[in-house]
Design a protein that fits this description.
This is CREG-like beta-barrel domain-containing protein. It comes from Tulasnella calospora MUT 4182. Keywords: Signal. This protein is an alpha+beta fold and 210 residues long. The protein contains 6 helices and 7 strands, in the order H-H-E-E-E-H-E-E-H-E-E-H-H. It has one domain: Roll (Pnp Oxidase, Chain A), CATH 2.30.110.10. Helix 2 runs antiparallel to helix 6. The radius of gyration is 18 Å and the shape is globular.
Length: 210
Amino acid sequence: MKLPSPKTILLAALASTGVLGFESVEDAARIARTLVQSESIGTLSTTFPEGHALAGESLGLIEYYAPCHNNGSLAVLFFGISLNGKNILASSNHSATFSLQAPPSRSAATKPRLAMMGTFEIFGDKYPQGDELRRCYLKSHPDAWWTPGSHGEGVHGATWARFDPQTIYFVGGFGGAHYIGYIPIDLYRRAVPREAEPDSFERLRIESDK
């Protein structure tokens, strides 16, 4: 029997200390997966490596992604020439953070948001399901004419990559009503997102309160 890693045990303990309103951590996992499924643009953050003039400083810029993986990982077009791309390549495990937030209505502070800390798997031209991935990606970003295979080689060295979350921190809204804390990665991967609709997050919360 395989024992859980110390990191898994620690994150499970952290999840148990989350702030609970009427949302449980299970509700938060489902909302997180729904948010990932319904959005297609987030903020990608990286850290400048040692030896750089800005070593240790962070960089965050918007980034396209597509929810093409059943376990909640993100399909990303990776540009090694970008600053974020260079920082990722300089990291020993290709680490980065993806942050997402639900579209604001009256108050952005009441909407769910999350930060996913994880690693990139960069495929180059060896991704075995490139055509299928391209079709999925273009559903989220029909303007992305620069995808690999669209014009021979990827524009500006664009290549397919997958962002795999390892640690997830979730803020459901105000702490008195919504869950705030870590979501265990296994729970996130198992959670089933619902179809994205304008009131998805409100209805999820109403159902959680029953």
